[in-house]
Write the structure tokens for this entry.
Amino acid sequence: MKYTSVFDIIGPVMIGPSSSHTAGAARIGRVARDLFGGQPKWAKIHLYGSFAETYKGHGTDVAIIGGLLDYDTFDERIKTAFADAEKANLTYEFIPETAHTEHPNTARLVIGDDETEMSMVGISIGGGSIEIIELNGFPLRLSGGMPAILVVHDDRAGCIAAVANCLAGYNINIGHMEVSRKERGNMALMVIEVDQNIDKSILDEMSTLPNITKVTRIKN
Amino acid sequence: MEVLFHNVRELVALAESENKQISEIMIEQEMLITERTREEIMTQMTRNLTVMEEAVERGLKGVHSVTGLTGGDAVLLQKYIATGKSLAGDLLLDAVSKAVATNEVNAAMGTICATPTAGSAGVVPGTLFAVKNKLNPTKEQMIRYLFTSGAFGFVVANNASISGAAGGCQAEVGSAAAMAAAAIVEMAGGTPQQSAHAFSISLKNMLGLVCDPVAGLVEVPCVKRNAMGAANAIVAADMALAGVTSRIPTDEVIDAMYRIGRTMPSALRETGQGGLAATPTGRALEAKIFGGAVLQSE
């Protein structure tokens, strides 16, 4: 099911004017920040479909930047996000695209700092709900509505068991899990939705496991 | 994931067999899915109700959007109601004015609660705070109104769409009106089945409604569509309470809405390229607001 909670329907509380183009956009930006592991220094934001056609009127641009600055959907500071970004040393560029995408409200965020960069595709499916459908070239499905852990790892036997064991050790229940890879034996990505927010110490422990490249989380 | 209902047929059957209100089924499902307590869930919905009430109050004092395209109509309507000359009736027009108030606040980038979306956020609170004056509900009944709306919206969102970009305005204001109609029926003491009929009657009259915002802004015609959504909801609720039934079952109406959305051209799904957005005046307003930049990107 795309929508799981009554508060996906009666909610979110948000700054207007559009749940998909403003609130959803802010959420996409905020999830990108979470996955990046903090605030990026630069952002190239490609907009598709209705996002590309109407982003100025809907405040989609300020909302995505607000999300990258960790603002929630109801944060009044969304309105001043551009000025705030300048103060926070975040440079950004919006690129409206004409290419056709499967979903009409699609954004590709390429963000980075001096050392690393990340590419993420988010879609705003209506009413402020979002899905992340691609991360660094890996296809995935992540709602952003549940706390989640993302683990980049080598495609080797035992990786998944080791991560699951680590969570079990802390009595953390896995609600949903997906594994994807670009090609056999290469890099793979685990997406694990869990029932509660995960302590950073657990992520640190997980990242010391064999064949694990990177561990990030989405808080809720 | 285990849910208590996947469609309106199951929702109504469960409410009837357990002799519960639809709002109660929604609360129980939320407890089941999120593993939170009833108290936590009720507290969160109470906060949403407060946001709605504050938005209505703010809009009734008069707000204007940055573009100047919308604002001030809620005030005009309240003044007109006060003259006692309303043809539609005070309750209906009160709902209309409060729906408008909410969407005027939304257009002004104020704080609102999406129900089910921001562009359609006026209908559910607008009807609630108007019907309230007639039915004198308790605070809990007002919160339940939102759960009943949410239960029907939950089905629409999962089985069809609540996105104007995906399904047109029928998916947004259409869904909102139908959700409100169902909730009014419950608050007025109607049965779960009557709520479903009210929902169907309302949505059937929103089918095909396109999403064609001028300059891509959630202003024209969105604010007035919320006004009519509120009026539609109250009339549909009255019809169901009078015993009028929908010949087409609710889930089939929802499916029809979904299929219509799938066949709707992209120009009429929140791209600001067709319908009212593409009229000479719509284009002129767009050029005035955004200058040449937006026109060039077409």
Summary: The two ends of chain B are 43 Å apart (CA to CA). DSSP finds 14 helices and one strand in chain B. Residues 8-34+114-287 of chain B form one domain.
